[in-house]
C-alpha cells in the first residue's frame, strides 16, 4: 500500500519545523521539552528518520497538537489558534495544493 503524500516523512518534517517556529524554539529546546535527544529531533525535522509514535505523543501532550496533524496534516483537530496560524502561514508555492489546509 502506497503512503499518502501528506504523510510522507518530508511533510511530517515540515510540520515539525513549523511547530518549532510557531513556539519560537530551537531544535534543542523542542527536543528537551518532549524528552527526545537533539539528534533524534534533528533527524525528525530533516526527514532523515520518521517521527516515532512516542515522539508524536510527547509533542501532542506538550504542545496541544494532534496525531492527525503531525502525521497526515489534518488541522481540524488542532486548537483554533494553532490551526489558524498553520493555515495562514506563508507557503513556498501557491501551485502546490496540499491537504494541510482545512476542509471547508
Features:
globular, disordered C terminus, mainly alpha, 434 Repressor (Amino-terminal Domain), 0% strand, 104 residues
Descriptive overview:
- The chain has 104 residues and is an all-alpha fold.
- The chain has a single domain (5-87), classed as 434 Repressor (Amino-terminal Domain).
- It has 6 helices and no strands.
- The N and C termini lie far apart (28 Å).
- Mean pLDDT is 86; it is low at 94-104.
- This is DNA-binding transcriptional regulator, XRE-family HTH domain.
- It comes from Pseudovibrio ascidiaceicola.
- InterPro entries: Cro/C1-type_HTH (IPR001387), Lambda_DNA-bd_dom_sf (IPR010982).
State the end-to-end CA separation.
28 Å
- Helix % is 40-55%
Overall, the morphology is globular
Q: Helix/strand/pairing class, anyone?
A: mainly alpha
Rg, Å, rounded: 13 Å
CATH superfamily: lambda repressor-like DNA-binding domains
Number of domains: 1
Major sheet details: none
Can you tell me the CATH architecture?
Orthogonal Bundle
Amino acid at each position: 500500500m502506497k503512503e499518502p503524500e501528506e504523510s510522507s516523512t518530508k511533510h511530517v518534517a515540515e510540520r515539525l519545523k513549523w511547530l518549532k517556529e510557531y513556539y519560537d524554539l530551537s531544535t534543542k529546546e523542542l527536543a528537551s521539552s518532549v524528552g527526545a535527544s537533539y539528534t533524534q529531533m534533528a533527524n525528525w525535522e530533516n526527514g532523515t528518520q520518521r517521527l516515532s509514535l512516542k515522539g508524536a505523543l510527547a509533542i501532542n501532550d506538550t504542545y496541544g497538537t494532534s496525531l492527525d496533524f503531525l502525521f497526515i496534516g489534518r488541522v481540524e483537530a488542532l486548537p483554533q489558534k494553532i490551526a489558524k496560524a498553520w493555515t495562514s502561514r506563508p507557503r513556498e508555492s501557491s501551485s502546490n495544493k496540499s491537504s494541510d489546509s482545512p476542509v471547508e
